């Protein structure tokens, strides 16, 4: 067997091993992917704060020209995370912020 | 737009996860570690690079995956050395989960993996390669990356890629010539 035949044989076996993964492994891979897609989209630095003060802090930060990365906004890749502040928000509050139109305005201003 | 982006990212990750898992499994010899590495790589891509174009995702994911594998190897090496330092007087017959970690300097595939047939033999032979040779071989021969792309993914020179790849091919042929490759 020459080298090219050997390498082709290896590729074929590797392809077969990839296609023959068992159902349990495939399920775990699917779970890992879903987890990455869900959790990977959250900002790296968030601090939980009471819901009542969330809007106030956001308004202050916007006034200070700080930018919040909205995961679902197409912003040409320009975003600034909170480097010095850790904000924890409830899931409901975070979803609220995602829906707030002012974040789109801020992101547009920054771009 | 956001939904389409999410769907595209999901589709891309679904297209690479199996091969990524096989590569990580070959490298670590442990299915759980392999899963952790793949999930970690996916998480990093989504968190840091999901705003890149779809055309860039493949190269980014390859680079992240290989970096995670190298990190795992470094941690394993430290663990093995620490274990040796702390337990050098222990009874050698005592089982230790760390014994299952691959040792880059004295790998023996027969001690690490069950060899049942040709695919297992191939996996074991790849697992026994030094990491850089293993990465170069899989990226060049299985992923189909050219020398320049492989060098970028591995973070080394093109000359190094060629050397690692050549040595890997030589080692694998010598190891596998008795396993249905003639």
Spatial shape of chain A = elongated
Distance between the termini of chain A: 58 Å
| Cα gyration radius of chain B (Å) | 18 Å
Give unreliable regions of chain A as ranges: 69-95
Q: Structural class from helices and strands of chain A?
A: mainly alpha
Number of strands of chain B: 0
Explain what you see:
The complex is a heterodimer of chains A (111) and B (182). The model of chain A is unreliable at 69-95 (pLDDT under 50). The longest helix of chain A has 17 residues, at 3-19. Helices cover 59% and strands 0% of the residues of chain A. Chain A has 111 residues and is an all-alpha fold. Chain A has five helices and no strands. Chain B has 182 residues and is mostly helical. In chain B, 73% of the residues lie in helices and 0% in strands. Chain B has helices at residues 2-28, 31-49, 54-86, 109-112, 118-128, 131-142, 147-154, 158-176. In chain B, helix 6 (131-142) packs across helix 8 (158-176). The termini of chain B are far apart. The model of chain B is unreliable at 88-107 (pLDDT under 50).
Question: What is this structure's SSE topology?
Answer:
The complex is a heterodimer of chains A (111) and B (182).
Chain A: H1 3-19, H2 23-39, H3 51-63, H4 91-99, H5 101-110
Chain B: H1 2-28, H2 31-49, H3 54-86, H4 109-112, H5 118-128, H6 131-142, H7 147-154, H8 158-176
Helix pairs in contact in B: 1-2, 1-3, 2-3, 3-7, 5-8, 6-7, 6-8, 7-8
């Amino acid at each position: 067997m020459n080298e090219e035949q050997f390498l082709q044989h290896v590729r074929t076996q590797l392809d077969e091993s990839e296609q023959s993964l068992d159902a349990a492994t495939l399920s775990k891979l699917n779970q890992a992917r879903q987890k990455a897609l869900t959790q990977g989209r959250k900002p790296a630095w968030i601090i939980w704060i009471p819901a009542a003060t969330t809007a106030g802090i956001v308004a202050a930060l916007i006034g200070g020209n700080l930018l919040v990365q909205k995961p679902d906004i197409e912003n040409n890749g320009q975003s600034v995370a909170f480097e010095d502040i850790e904000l924890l928000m409830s899931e409901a509050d975070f979803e609220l912020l995602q829906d707030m139109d002012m974040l789109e305005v801020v992101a547009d201003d920054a771009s | 737009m956001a939904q389409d982006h999410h769907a595209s990212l999901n589709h891309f990750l679904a297209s690479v996860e199996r091969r990524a898992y096989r590569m990580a499994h070959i490298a670590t010899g442990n299915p759980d570690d392999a899963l952790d590495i793949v999930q970690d790589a996916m998480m990093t891509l989504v968190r840091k690079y999901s705003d890149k174009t779809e055309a860039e995702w493949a190269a980014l994911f390859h680079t992240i995956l290989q970096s995670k594998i190298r990190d795992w190897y470094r941690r394993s090496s430290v663990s093995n050395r620490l274990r040796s330092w702390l337990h050098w007087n222990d009874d050698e017959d005592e089982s230790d989960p760390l014994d299952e970690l691959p040792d880059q300097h004295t790998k023996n595939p027969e001690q690490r993996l069950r060899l049942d047939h040709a695919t297992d033999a191939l996996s074991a032979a790849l697992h026994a390669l030094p990491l850089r040779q293993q990465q170069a071989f899989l990226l060049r021969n299985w992923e189909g990356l050219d020398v320049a792309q492989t060098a970028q993914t591995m973070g080394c020179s093109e000359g190094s890629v060629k050397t690692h790849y050549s040595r890997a091919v030589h080692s694998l042929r010598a190891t596998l010539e008795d396993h249905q490759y003639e």
